[in-house]
Structure formats: structure tokens, C-alpha cells
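Example with several molecule types.
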Amino acid sequence: MAIRLTVNQRIEEVEAAPDTPLLYVLMNELSLQGPRFGCGLAQCGACSVLVDGVETRSCVTPLSRVEGKSITTLEGLPAWYAQQRKLAAAPALHPIQQAVIDEQALQCGYCYNGQMIKAAELLSKNSTPTDAEIRTAMNGHICRCGTYPRLMKAIKRAALAMAGGAR
Amino acid sequence: MTDIFGSGDLTSGLPRRDFFKAGGMLVVGFAVAPSAFAQNPGQRTGAYDGPAQPDADRLDTWIAIHADNTATIIHGHHELGQGISTSLLMIAAEELDLDMSQVRRMPLETGKSPNQGLTAASAGIARGGVRVRLAAADARQALLGLASTHLGAPVERLTVSRGVVSVAGDPAKKVTYGELLGDKHFNVPFTGRAPIKDYRKHTIVGTRVPRRDVPDKASGKYVYLQHVKVPGMLHGRVVRPRGQGSFLHGAKVMSVDASSIANIPGVRIVRRGDFLGVVAPNEWDAVKAAEQLKVTWDMPAILPASQEALHDRMRAARTADRLVLDRGDCTAAFAKAVHVASGRYDAPYQLHGPFAPNCAIADVKRDSALVYSSRQTIYGTRQVVCGVTGLPLDKVVVRFFETSPSYGRGCQEDCAMAAAVMSQEVDAPVRLQLMRWDEHGWDHYQQAHTADVKVACDASGKIVAYEYHGWQHNFTAGDTTEILVGAKKPGEGEGIRAQGPTLFNTGDQYTIPNWRIVNHRVPGMSGYFKAAPLRSPMDIALPFAGEQTLDRVAYMANMDPYQFRRQNISGERWLGVLDAVAKASHWTPRRAASVKQTGRVRTGRGIALGTHLSSYGAAVAEIEVDTETGVIVAKKMYGSIDPGQVINPGIVERQIESQMCVACSRLLKEEVTFSTSNVTSLDWSTYPPLRFGEAPEVTAVVVDRPNVPSSGAGEEALAAGAAALANAFFDATSVRMYTFPLTPKRVLAALHSAPKNTTA
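Resulting C-alpha cells for the full complex:
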């Protein structure tokens, strides 16, 4: 059956059973590369998207639950940021994406979809997070390459950039 | 003991550090100096031979020069998140006198990429880098020859900058590489004899060039294997018991009830022998069908009842014993030693657990196949796909795409074979995505290990004797799919594949006059799990035992553990990394466990050395132990590696940071659990990894030796970090841990039962 979704500020109509997890639709029907499969159990964060600004595990979220809501994937993060900050135009990258590049934080980078989605959510609610607040917020996102220390630096760098209004 | 000096000689346990035996003494040498390849520079390093490979002895196999004055470097090393695709380009650009914007690499594909074997053992730079460097030097020499003719000036008068060759003293006379060769072939052999650049003239090698892959990975544009789509592909899932049983008795299908998935449209069951799977046009339908399909399996309950029973079983087994080393007279030295510490140490099975379960796409036709895989060897993958499909090697093409790494041989090959079997059965391209429980449950695990270690020193703290007995089974041969379809008989890896204790990973750091190492090979075919190398294979278990025992002797000698190691150190490279971490952590000398602590949370620090048979690693750990909950938190880790010449210090620092986090994960948390019939750690809650909130702060120190050949930087500090954590626990609590991981349950049991200041 046809379900209407708002993904990255575009209205999409997809044919899928309502119990289909959002992840499979984003990957297979909409060919998005941000959300990706990691565990299918909401344990790792590979599949994270923002649903009305709240980090959500798309691998266990049935389509029926997100109808009419605004879904943002990694691809839509710069535009979402622009909307949040009332910028005239979307930057090429969200500050957390730029900070990840500047810190050369990622290694394989597969978990960084979720890491950056979660960090963007955190920074949208708390522009000056402490180390402890970052650790708590990010604890649900696993990294098997062991890049947590660099990611910590990247999140703090992004917070600074946002405070400076740089991007 | 049987088979002393029998089944293998001293060399058989030493796959990774080049060495030769001279005058009754083992001499460690880094024989990977460029000159070593001069006779046969293109020589393949992999075990995977066969037709349809580019000729490694032709220069055009390795480098192409384009009309726009850029170069494509064609190599056989797989990007796994470690940064190799950037580092190899740095080496090539350096030797060719190009800048980084002028070099690119070619994606890996059989038939097009040279066969450089496995990208493993942290040897991408040590082995792969040498060939890229020699090829680039050959190419530069060939281009200078062309330029000399073109410009009418002798080669000696030519200089190159950014691919522009000019005549010294006459800068108007110049020509670009692109103008000289522009997309034409060199048509010359790869000699490996061209002079290479003096390291003191390097302007790219040794600098922090940003990684090529990072921007696209951050933006979401990077194409992982999971993103690849093939027209008309179906979605596949394997159907297996949740958690493998004993190797050899894994999964026998007794019955399949097809009616149990009759309500899911378009699903087909694939069965060949005991291999079972489902395919469907819609991915969610395939997921549901795999979950819903009713199958009865024969799973014999022959696994040990507990971790302790596993280690006891290994010790009671009829082992093939090998005296790896017997230097001096250990028995006499122990008898008269002033301080002797000994004990038994146990290490669990651990899994590769890539963050993304493996994925593969196979399009198998009647007489050919195209396979997309993330296995670190395209040619090895081609071989096993041929094994299950019956196709000849020259009819199968394998393309590599990155996914999250397994840091060793996980389920990549199994996944590629399974996709191929499914595609062949349904006559359509199949994308197979393993589920989390498939990857956790059907991995090749790092073997469990158990050790008896005894170390002695004299009154001055000089090590006088060191004895190590290690028990483990070999890596196994045969992967799940090929065994289930009956294409391969399961077996055990021989010789070097065990990577048990050797003199290099067990005591090499120290000067030891009386030294005995015995390897007890457990027959691993029945009652154990399939096994393959995991990052720093066995090198966490070995220093957990060895470096703790050493620490105990230092304690008995009333010495600071850093000073104790320092005075027993075997060479300057070990000393270099040891001093580096001590300095970084502001180590102040004192005996371990000498700070009186009374509160609920105790703090401790530990130091250790570690290796991975090639480079030199050291670490310091600073931890907190909550004596009420048993939870250990690593607050700060300091890691150091001496990998010889450093190509990109930024990448090496991140490798060290990674190793410090992984050391915490594996020493404190990771453990494959099982019932008597199958593995039960099947997701991230039953096999908990280190999470962000538990991650230490890390200081990484790179010891660069630019005039020494590179020897790898992906694993050594991991071994040291794990042992440093164990030593820090004693410093905090005066209690030794003899089994890892140091879970809260084990910590509490140890705190409540162990006598304080255990020394022997």
C-alpha cells in the first residue's frame, strides 16, 4: 500500500507494507546512503535518522509510525541545520560533519551516520555540552574501530564552530 | 610431551617478522628493505594463484600516467578504514615527484588489480608500500629517460616538480609526465632497481596528509558494499541455528517446513546440502521469512559447560606439544632464584564482530560470475567462490567494496560464498545481508587460550628465568557455507596458522638467560569453535599472562614496574616505546599497590610492553575500580608504537587511539558465551563492546624511525594496552586477575576471595 513520508523536506510516496521498518524503505526505495543496517535490534545506531528532530532507530521503526512526520537522514542534515538556525541557505555540511573531517575522526566510518545524527541532535538541544553530557548522549552508538576519543574532540569542535556562528 | 622439535621448527610460529637463523642464534631482521625485492619486484605475496591476473612483472600493471599529468596507482591492498589507500598514494607521489592532487588509486577487482594477497597483519605498508615505492621509482626513471630524449639533456641534469621535468639551469626547457606518456603504456618490465629517494628528502612521506576517504564518509556519499545495487537482484538471508555449535558438528538440517512461510509472497527457499537460505524480491520479506521458517536442526550438546570447563578441557586434551625454545637451564635457574612468581591464566574466545554484519552480492550465471565482497583478498575470494560454484578461476570476477572491518577473517568469505550459492540456485543476482546474530553466531573466533607462566629474578631484579606453557587449538580450515554445501572438508590449520606462543611474542622484550616456551596444540576439531586471526591474534592472551607474571616478580623484588622492565629490556627499540609511554604519562617510580587506598573507588596504573611479531608497542593504563559494583573504568590510556618509518603520523596516532579503546573493550568486556550445544552471545547486549561512555582519554606517541623499513602499526599497542590494564588492576586493589575479560562479576569474585598482595 502507498504511504506518504516526508524525507529531507521532500514528500515521498512509497509502496510498502506498513510493518516494514523505515530503514529498508530509506535504503531500497529511496536509495539513501546515510541510514544503514547494523543490527536490526536498535542496539548500535547505524540506522539512526531524525524523526521530528529526535534521533530514532529506523531499523525497528515501522513505516506506519512515521507517516506524516518529518524524517531527516544524514543527507538532509545540512538543510535541517539551516532550518533550525534560520540560515538563508543550507551549508555544504553540518558543523559536525565538517568537524569529523577536520579531526580526521572516523576510520571505516560506517557507524558515523548514527554518530553524526546523534551528535547533531545533541548540539541542537545543548550548544555547550560537557564531556559527561556528550558521553551520556552518545552512549547508545557503538564504534568498533575505537574512534571515541577523536569523536569527542569532533563534537566539541562542532559546538565551538556553532557558537561562533561560523557555519 | 610428544613431538619435541617435531612437527615444526622454530620458524613455524613466526609468520610475521622476517628472520633468519645464523650461527645458532636467531637474528631478527627487517628483510623487507627495498633491495630485498630487487630480483623479483612484482612477486606476489598472496597464496592465491591462478589465471587472469595482471602480470606483476610489468610496470604498467602498477602505474598509469595520464595526459592531464596525473597518475593512477594500481595496487592490491584493500581499504579497511585503516587509511591504506591514502598512505600508499603518499608513497607513490613522493617517489614520482607528484603532489597528492595528482595521484589516485584504482578500485580493486580481480583481473585488473595486482595480486598482493591478503591485506592483513598490519603489513599494507611493510609489504605493499615497498612495491608501490619501487614501482613509482621505476616509473620516474622511465619518464626521465623519455624526458632526456625529448629535451635533449642528460638525465643527470633533469629535475622534477609536480610531474614537470625541467633542465637544471635552463628552466625554459621542460615537459610534463603527461606530455611524455599521456595514457600510453610504459611497455617496460618492473625491475625494482631504480634508485629510491633518500628519506631525508621526503616532503610527503612523514607528513599528516588528510585521508582521501574521510570527506565522502562524513557527507554520506561514500559507497560501502551495503549500498551497491545490481539490476534485478533479489534479497537473501541465510537460515542457520542461532549460534554455531562445535566445529565439525555445526548444523545438520533434519527437516524444513516450507508451509511455515507460505504467507509471505515471492519467497523461495534455497537448499543445497545443509546450506539453507531464503530469497525474496523485497528485503523485509526475506528478513521475515528467515526468521519464520521452521527448521529442525541436529545440534549435539558437546561443548563445555562453562568458560572454566573449556580451559580445563584444553588442558586435559591429548595435545601435540612442541618445545618452541629452550635456552639455558630453566630448572636450575628457578631452583636457586630469589623471587619466583607463577600462575595459570585463562583467555576467552572473542569475536570479530564487525559493526556492520557482512554483505555480499553475487550474480552467478551458467558460465561466469560477478561477486561483490568485502573480504581483504579479492583473489582469495575468487578462489572460494569457484569452490562452491564449480566455475573456473578465469570466469569469476570479484570486486572489492569497503564495509566496516572485521580486523581479521570474520564472515566475509562465508558471506560471498553463500550469496554465490543462492544466486546459482535461483538463477538471479542475490544480495545477501547477514543479520547480527548470523555474524556474531557464525564467526571464526579468536581462539581461547590458557597458560602456565613462571618468571624469576635475582635479588637485584634481574630476570633469571622465564617459562611459558600455552594451550590453544589451531585456526580452522573451511568456512561455513563451503562445509554446509559439501564443497570442502573441514580441517585444522597447520603450523604457523596457530600463532601460539613464540620467542617473539613471549619474552622478546627482555634479556632472558634461561628461557623455555612450550606450545601445547589442542586438537580443535570437535568440542571447540571455528577459529581465525582477530586483530593482534593471541597477542592479548599472551601478555595478559606474561606481562602480569613479570609484574608480580617486580613487585616481589620491591621494584617499580617501569624501572624493572627498563633494567631487563632487550634492545633500544623496546626501550624507545617503553620510555615514550612512561614520559607521556608522567610516570613516577614506586612499587605497585604501594598507595594506601580505603575508599569505594580505587585508582591504579599499569605499564606493559606488547608486540604483534613485527613492530614494538608499549602502553600505560590509568583506571578506576569500583569495589562495590566491580566495574572498571579506564580513565586514561597512553600508547606507543615504533613501526619503523612512519608514512603518515596522523594515521598512526589514530591507529594507536583505536588500539587503546579496543584493548579496553577486549580486556574488560568481550567474551563469547555458549551453552553445551551452541554459542549464546548473539548481539551487542549478550556480547557487550566498549561504549562511548566507557571510553578512555588516549595519548598516542609515535616513535618514528625514518631510516628503518616500515613494519606496521595496527596491532602492537593493543597487546600492551590489555596487559597494562591488568597490571593497573593489581595496583588499584592488590589483587591479581587470572582470567579475562575483567567483568564486574569476576572482579567482585576476585576481590572477595583473593588473599591480598598475591605474589605467587
